Amino acid sequence: MSVIASSAHTDTGRRRRRNEDAFVCEPPLFAVADGMGGAQAGEVASRLAAESLREQELGGLSSPEQTVELIREANRRVYAYSSENASARGMGTTMTVALVEGSVVTIGHVGDSRAYLLRDDQLTQLTQDHSLVAELVRSGRLSAKEAESHPRRSVITRALGTDSEVEVDVLSLRAQDRDIFLLCSDGLTSMVSDEEIARLLLSARGDLDDAGKKLIAAANQAGGEDNITVVLFEPEVGEPEPESSIAQEPDSAKTLSEVDAVPVLKLEPKQSLRSQRSRRITLLALAFAFLLTLVGLGVFTVSTAHFIGVEPDGRVAVYQGLPYDLPGGIHLYRTVRVSSRLYAAQLTAGERRRFFDHGLHSYGDMTRELSTLEGDVYP
Fold this sequence. Notes:
By secondary structure, this protein is of the alpha+beta class. Helix content is 33%, strand content 26%.
């Protein structure tokens, strides 16, 4: 066993009715996931991601490769569920994973949950938040103080389940004696400062279970506005390993182009000539039948119906027509206006549920809604 002690706690908080966080605390594997989405989709997303980690076999790959593959498989499961269940469209989850091998700890990360290291009485944040305000702070467009109260500080720019592929940040480091690692959801870090987290960990050093309970209590005492999850572990320090076995953190990539919800699916497998001809005939019949149905709809004609959706590059757009795709890539809508600066990833979960429900309205209503969205994000 390469872990001396570990502990995990989760709490709904004081403002939420459900707990959309999930965790894994099964040495040598640890993780925190914070779900997002309408109805119970966030809860489902985080649970699916955590279950995926538990079910995968460890070994056969280096720790960095293993960690990335664990997260990518979790992403595939969440994305598949979201694609197959209309009520879960647009759902996703953050995920921060720690894999311990000997005295080397590898961290994999997507989203705004965090990993910390307490070493020599100093707390260090190991991960970078994939969030709108974090991107703005890193680019110099927002100060750290302004980010604390920014109205969109909860909007994340990278998550599991929102796309078929996901970019994973990964780093490895060798543990030292008495190191304590903390994985947590933003329900802790949005309520409790890093300085207070360090103080509480130090006050409960030697008892990780007590430390976890104190962190949860501190977040609730500060307001408990979100679900709170903490996972703590202390690795066992063994024989030093060769430097070449420790992977370095890759350069961070800009993530503002990540799409949080996609309005339509477009998959077109290659077909033989004969099957293509047969399929074309079938498509024509389906298209004709569908067009007859459209005539019967009356008020919702292609010329008057509009809805808000997302372009392939992630920008929010207004479409004219009906939000449906026929087989063969036949669209019953066309793009009539694309925002020059507003991306779906910059919207809150509530805004995504409201604006991407594909409700049909007039062109004027939809363009005004888009202008309002742009004004909210870029006042």
